[in-house]
Write a structure and sequence with these properties.
By secondary structure, the protein is of the alpha+beta class. Helix content is 46%, strand content 15%. Helix 4 (130-144) crosses helix 9 (264-277), helix 5 runs antiparallel to helix 6 (181-207) and helix 5 packs parallel to helix 10 (287-304). It is globular, with a radius of gyration of 20 Å.
């Protein structure tokens, strides 16, 4: 991000609605600016292969995609895309389609931190029916989500191997840092064994329309309980290969995340409620595979932070510890998936 724009976005007086303070967070792909009642997300000009925000045109395109796709599950939260440009050498909020646009931000309603699923779990404040509500919302979303036959390849070994092989390529440099050689090799070997042993089940699920346009990044930090509603946000907008997939992969992601938070019984409860809402006779045969895949992805994403020069040492250390835990989980799932 342009240093002068970063400085401007840290100024509470710059925002369309008055605010007393600004909280600035970073991920490996975004700058996030949090005001009293709004969130503004600016994509970083990065290219990881599976994600490419390297040009302004791409950042504009995917910002509009982010709003459109997230409106499926949280229509009241995503307010639109706002442009940023310099007029007489001063940064201003402008129309995102204006020729003077130099950057764009996705504008969202700020959801209350004490309603986030992860917060409720860690503070032991989960409402008794919370996981039931989440399971019902996810199941109904999956039931209504479109199933495109041309995307079915993304749920069978021949197509899904692109995802797993990409993971192994992109984590080689982290062997000995965030993942051990033995963990990396075991997950690699067990993944290939799974494709041979359970590939037919994956193909049968794809034939039955289980590969759908999903959320793609369903974990507890992307779920909020607020005003009696369940809001699921921050879906994958940047890559259809990650958004389309077997619904089992999405169920497995949230289960893995709950197990990462040391709540295995809650993960099982989520699955039970999901299956009450939406029958699926073969999901349990592929869950450990998808849990392994999702844990490995999360370990990879945390590892990417180690190479980001804009992330401070303390945050990199936290990312390293999280990566270790995710890769440990991936190893444990790999041992059970065949």
């Amino acid at each position: 991000m342009d240093p002068t724009l970063l400085e401007k976005m840290l100024d509470p007086g710059f925002y369309p609605k008055p605010t007393l303070q600004i909280e600035h967070l970073q991920t490996h792909i975004s700058h996030v600016f949090i005001t009293q009642d709004r969130v503004y997300k600016v994509k970083k000009p990065v290219n990881f292969g599976f994600l490419d925000f390297s040009t302004l045109e791409k950042r504009i395109h995917f910002s509009f995609q982010e709003v459109a796709l997230n409106s499926r599950l949280s229509p009241d939260i995503y307010l639109g895309v706002k442009g940023l440009g310099r007029i007489e050498d001063q940064w201003k909020w402008i129309d995102p389609k204006d020729q003077k646009v130099e950057e764009v931000a996705v504008e969202m309603v700020r959801l209350p931190q004490d309603g986030f699923l992860q917060y409720l779990i860690m503070k032991d404040r989960m409402p008794y029916d919370a996981i039931d509500k989440v399971a019902k919302k996810v199941a109904r979303f999956h039931q209504e989500a479109p199933s495109d036959p041309s995307m079915a390849i993304l749920g069978v070994p021949e197509g899904f191997k692109e995802n797993t092989h990409e993971n192994f390529r992109q984590t080689r440099e982290f062997i000995g840092l965030s993942i051990s050689q033995s963990q990396w090799s075991l997950v690699n070997e067990k993944t290939e064994e799974f494709y041979k042993a359970k590939g037919a089940i994956m193909r049968e699920r794809a034939k039955k329309g289980m590969v759908k346009e999903c959320h793609g990044d369903l974990h507890s930090q992307h779920i909020c309980l607020w005003r009696g509603e369940v809001y699921i946000f921050d879906c994958i907008e940047f890559n259809e290969r990650f958004r389309y997939g077997d619904v089992a992969s999405e169920v497995a992601f949230l289960m893995m995340d709950l197990e990462f938070l040391m709540k295995p019984q809650l993960a099982q409860t989520f699955l039970e409620h999901y299956l009450k809402e939406r029958k699926d006779n073969t999901i349990t045969q592929v869950l450990d595979f998808y849990k392994c895949y999702r844990a490995f992805v999360r370990g990879k994403v945390e590892s990417f932070c180690l190479n980001d020069p804009s992330i401070v040492h303390e945050d990199k250390h936290r990312a390293l510890l999280k990566a270790h835990r995710y890769f440990f989980l991936a190893e444990s799932y790999a041992r059970n998936m065949v």
